[in-house]
Design brief:
Low-confidence stretches: 348-357
Number of domains: 2
Structural class: alpha/beta
CATH topology of the largest domain: Isopropylmalate Dehydrogenase
Largest sheet: 10 strands, mixed
CATH superfamily of the largest domain: Isopropylmalate Dehydrogenase
Distance between the termini: 19 Å
CATH class of the largest domain: Alpha Beta
């Protein structure tokens, strides 16, 4: 098995090594046989070579089963093309999965009183290859246009993915759309509904603006949500409010044969190089990678180690702590080792999402 390691730009270079240290521990301790493949893409490469990602990079990524990705800085230059959009499209990573599952104890740490963290457990599944991120654009001085592409094929497969996930949880699926204004969303809504019903999943729908409000006010009402590309991007970032910080938000991009895991937070150039970036989102993205691999015990160990860091207040300044990126990463790794040695998480852990299509 081959795993591409892409640190990318900014704080990606600081948080990904902390996740990789945990991967190395399991890979070496249990002889998983994972070959790590370092790949350089992003702004740094663009500044040196004029290309943020090349055809050779894409070819190399296609040889890897897994991708652990840091962050990319995107500049306002017409010659700079989105690295993430190209990877998602060319590897056909059609399902973006973003869990909204607060770390136990985080609400107490941050003094959040609006909700009970045990009542918040949502997965937003986003179609990842078309919509307003189709890449079909005409850019001009007086008029610019982006074509919103919705196809039955893409809608069916994202609905099937979300339905499979829903059936493993509460068997409830919410389709979020704006079909009252965007008539292309009628195809998405109808296809998702038909697909879910054919699989015996209880399906309902809600307009995106109403859902955005209710997501924050009444998150306990929701479980698995499926939506289009732009809506999913915005809503899942909004959902980070329920996590306590965008520095705690992991994600996965999944296709039929490959999967890509990344923290949601971006490259954060304002704090890059200061050693204060929160590594937890990167570590939880690794946890999602373990879920995908079927390494449920190891995923459980990582989750419990992160919970221990929050409980002991071994956190970075964004969470009110005084610890550096590396100090938090080192603590989580040491806790993983300790729990592993104690044969912790031998039983099936809770909330292991079935991430494969």
């Amino acid at each position: 098995m081959r795993a591409a390691i892409i640190e990318g730009d900014g704080i990606g270079k600081e948080v990904i090594p902390e996740a990789v240290a945990i991967l190395d521990y399991f890979n070496e301790t249990y002889d998983w046989g994972i070959e790590k493949v370092p790949v350089e893409v992003g702004l740094g490469k663009w500044e040196k070579t004029g290309s943020a990602i090349t055809d050779d990079d894409i070819s190399l990524l296609k040889t890897c089963n897994l991708i652990l990705f840091g962050a990319i800085t995107t500049v306002n230059d017409p010659s700079y093309k989105s690295v993430l959009l190209r990877i998602r499209k060319e590897l056909d990573l059609y399902a973006n999965v973003r869990p909204i599952l607060p770390i136990s104890g985080i609400y107490k740490l941050l003094k959040i009183k609006d909700h009970k963290e045990e009542n918040v457990n949502i997965v937003i599944v986003r179609e990842n290859t078309e919509g307003l991120y189709s890449g079909v654009e005409e850019i001009g001085a007086e008029k610019s246009m982006t074509t919103r592409v919705i196809t039955k094929r893409a809608s069916e497969r994202i609905a099937a993915f979300a339905s499979n996930l829903a059936s493993a949880r509460k068997n409830k699926l919410l389709v979020v759309h704006k079909s009252n204004v965007l008539k292309s969303d009628k195809l998405f809504l109808d296809t998702c509904r038909q697909t879910a019903e054919s699989r015996g999943v209880d399906v309902s729908d809600k307009l995106v603006d109403i859902f955005a409000y209710d997501l924050i006010m009444n998150p306990e009402k929701y479980d698995v949500v499926v939506t289009t590309n732009l809506f999913g991007d915005i809503l899942s970032d909004l959902g980070a409010v329920l996590l306590g910080s965008i520095g705690l938000a992991p994600s996965a991009n999944i296709g039929d044969n490959q999967a890509f895991f990344e923290p949601v937070h971006g490259s954060a150039p304002d704090i890059a190089g200061k050693g204060i970036a929160n590594p937890i989102a990167a570590v939880l993205s690794l946890k999602m990678m373990f879920d995908y691999m079927g390494k449920t015990r190891e995923a459980c160990l990582v989750s419990r180690a992160v919970t221990a860091a929050v409980a002991d207040k071994i956190v970075t300044p964004d969470l009110g702590g005084k610890y550096s990126t590396k100090e938090v990463g080192d603590f989580i790794l040491s806790k993983v080792r300790q729990l592993d040695a104690a044969s912790f998480c031998l039983e099936d852990p809770e909330d292991i999402s079935k991430l494969k299509p």
